[in-house]
From TrEMBL:
Assembly description: Homodimer.
Catalytic activity: tRNA(Thr) + L-threonine + ATP = L-threonyl-tRNA(Thr) + AMP + diphosphate + H(+)
Official protein name in the record: Threonine--tRNA ligase
Keyword Cell inner membrane on entry: no
RNA sequence: GCCGGUUUAGCUCAGCUGGUAGAGCACCUGAUUUGUAAUCAGGGGGUCGGGGGUUCGAAUCCCUCAACCGGCACCA
């Protein structure tokens, strides 16, 4: 006998091997009908599984949040069956549940096209309507391999081989179709319902390895009901509206063109935004850092010394004279990183331990030859500006410096409204330089710092460890922030480096007169300023806070009678340091309101005969249909207060 | 880099099975002097992504290159 505890606390005994379905039916036939799976001690399993031990039991109905994952997983199976029914000879591989849906990877000589999706979707609905029960078999390894080999499913054979000895091979059937799968599944295909949609086809490498064959992946989304599906699709539309590439065009911030793949043409408004960010960062650095500027183009030999020519060459732009090359055959490279340049600055002249920590910052423009398929608007470019800094310090100062950087990073993010931050510690990778003792020490220090970071935040900052993800020269912290619509972006980074200073023979003279290589800490807060600008565009959906808005105020006239006054207002605002423009065009005020609202200008000052006579303005703020009237002086004071950057308002 | 898709006016897009381009918005001109999300009328604008080919004839079919989009891989 086994004892099962029910959600209400009741405990009952059953014969060993009783299935979840039997128990549900025993309670009520309607419960059995509604139940799609069960959870034993919190682990979701097939309802038809015999229960062999004491456990807490819960019945998972289709409305249960836990059913969603099952719906998606079942949907993936149905997708695979539909594809094999419509396209015989297609091999199945894997089909997991992902955020918001699922996918399935297929191997087929001719890849699927978007036009195939409606057909496949229709077939899926047909299979769901058949409502065949999901049933499970346990097969021996040999049988599984034999059956799949006979079916021509080479990838499944490979998957069977990869499953560790002693682990059972579960085969799930739905009608005549079956698949190797770890499960669990619902009771029948009919439970999936109709709230799903195939979204896109894409290429994907077998097992995520670019050396392997390219498979065709079909992505789908699935939900418990039509409302949830509609809501999700609506969310996608909303996300598209705030896409920085779209807003960049609509708000006239920047553009790209064919001749410059991955490099940005910043327009006046976009550059204003970019410069507001730089100005902000500069103010934040003023207290502790010295700003420098290292050359764009440096001899190959320097990159050989730094090691970049060895392990980063594929990503570097080589530069040579375009004229008479016999005159100067030297090979140069456009800098992909600022660190070697900063080491040269550190090296110049003798440094004492008294000079440490030495913090060199640069808004360094770097160029990296990113793979063509990786380029994506401002988010992934080939030429960008890092808010970079390198801190040269002693080993003893390392922890303190990391914490200082942490404070700077977190307060910066907070100023932009990013409060949900995860700090991840990446530890030693397989391929690395330096002795294990050095790594042991560095990782120990970093772990302590990570704990301190979590403690200081009072638990607000989440931390994580990524084993093996560190840079080859040292462990690193990665700062991930979450934007207004829940997406995560890795921006800041702090990396300790025991390697580069030595490669360049950089040292400082210690108190005892000996020469020692400094520890170098690489650190960025925004990371790429271009990318960070892109993140802000999407985070704010173009509705920037006043201090960042490229065009803060537009003064619009109602009739030409107010022109002179409007000019006066704009001059006053500009003199006070606001970014103000005038709109004296011979258009109706409704037209102007609409236009500037679409351009996402935060503040619109409307002036007519009345305002001109009284020296007032009518203020209309973006997103609000209301207006308030006040004197120009009052409005100016309000706007100035509001336009003050957060670091200057503290 | 790999797989698939896309590329027509400044923007969004139409253009069927080949007969050498069209809409809306934007722009320009004129009229209108207007009170908080589109005033009316007229006009200009495209070597249909580049190159090559098939054809009497190509935006349309084929090849090729490029950029972009969606994924994958990459992301020091």
């Amino acid at each position: 006998m086994i004892n099962l505890t029910f959600p209400d606390g009741a405990e009952r005994s059953f014969a060993e091997g009783t299935t979840g379905f039997d128990i549900a039916k025993g309670i009520s036939p309607s419960l059995a009908k509604r139940t799609v799976a069960m959870a034993l001690d919190g682990v979701t399993t097939d309802l038809a599984d015999p229960i062999e031990r004491d456990a807490r039991i819960e019945f998972v109905t289709r409305d249960d949040p836990r059913a969603l994952e099952l719906i998606r997983h079942d949907c993936a199976h149905v997708l695979a069956e539909a594809v094999q029914e419509l396209f015989p000879g297609t091999q199945v591989t894997i089909g997991p549940v992902i955020e918001n849906g699922f996918y399935y990877d297929f191997a087929r000589n001719e890849p699927f096209t978007p036009e195939d999706l409606p057909k496949i979707e229709a077939k899926m609905r047909e299979i769901i309507a058949r409502d065949k029960p999901f049933t499970k078999d346990i097969w021996s390894r040999d049988k599984a391999k034999e059956v799949f080999r006979e079916k021509g499913e080479a990838y499944k054979v490979e998957l069977v081989d990869a499953i560790p000895e002693g682990q059972s091979l579960k085969i799930y059937h739905q009608g005549d179709w079956f698949d190797l799968c770890r499960g669990p599944h619902m009771t029948s295909t009919g439970k999936i319902g109709n709230a799903f949609k195939l979204m896109k086809v894409a290429g994907a490498y077998w097992r995520g390895d670019s050396n392997n064959a390219m498979l065709t992946r079909i992505y789908g989304t699935a939900w418990r009901n039509q409302e949830d599906l509609d809501h999700y699709l609506h969310q996608l539309e909303e996300a598209e509206k705030r896409d920085h590439r779209r807003l960049g065009r609509e708000m006239d911030l920047f553009h790209f063109q064919e001749e410059g793949p991955g490099v940005v043409f910043w327009h006046p408004k976009g550059w204003s935004l970019f410069q507001s960010l730089i100005a902000y960062m500069r103010r934040r650095l003023a207290a502790d850092y010295a700003e420098v500027n290292a050359p764009q183009v440096l001899d190959k030999s320097l990159w050989e010394t730094s090691g970049h020519w060895g392990w980063y060459k594929e990503n570097m732009f080589k530069v040579q004279s375009a004229g008479d090359e016999t005159e100067d055959e030297r090979v140069f490279a456009l800098k992909p990183m600022n660190c070697p340049g900063h080491v040269q600055i550190f090296k110049h002249g003798l440094k004492s331990y008294r000079d440490l920590p030495m913090r060199l910052a640069e808004f360094g423009a770097v160029h990296r030859y990113e793979p063509s398929g990786a380029l994506h608007g401002l988010m992934r470019v080939r030429g960008f500006t890092q808010d970079d800094a390198h801190i040269f310090c002693t080993e003893e100062q390392m922890a303190e410096e990391c914490l200082k950087i942490n404070d700077l990073i977190l307060s910066t993010y907070a100023d932009f409204g990013f409060e949900e931050i995860v700090v991840k510690l990446s530890t030693r990778p397989e391929k690395r330089v330096g002795s294990d003792e050095v790594w042991d020490h560095a990782e120990a220090v970093m772990s302590r710092v990570l704990e301190e970071i979590a403690a200081r935040s009072g638990g607000r900052i989440k931390t994580d460890i990524l084993p093996g993800e560190g840079a080859f020269y040292g462990p690193k912290f990665e700062y991930t922030l979450r934007d207004a619509i829940g997406r995560e972006w890795q921006c800041g980074t702090t990396q300790v480096d025991f390697n580069l200073p030595e490669r360049f023979g950089a040292f400082y003279v210690d108190a005892d007169g000996t020469k020692k290589p400094p520890v170098m800490i690489h650190r960025a807060i925004c990371g790429s300023m271009e990318r960070f600008t892109g993140i802000l565009i999407e985070h704010f959906a173009g509705h920037f806070p006043l201090w960042l808005a490229p065009s803060q105020v537009v003064v619009a006239t109602i009739t030409s009678d107010a022109d002179a006054y409007a000019e006066d207002v704009v001059a006053t605002l500009k003199a006070a340091g606001l970014r103000a423009e005038k709109d004296l065009r011979n258009e109706k005020i409704t037209y102007k309101v609409r236009e500037h609202s679409l351009a996402k200008v935060p503040v619109l000052l409307v002036v007519g005969r009345k305002e001109a006579a009284e020296r007032t303005v009518s203020i209309r703020r973006l997103g609000s249909p209301n207006q308030t009237s006040m004197t120009l002086d009052e409005a100016l004071a309000d706007l100035l207060r509001e336009a003050r950057p957060p670091d200057l308002s503290r």
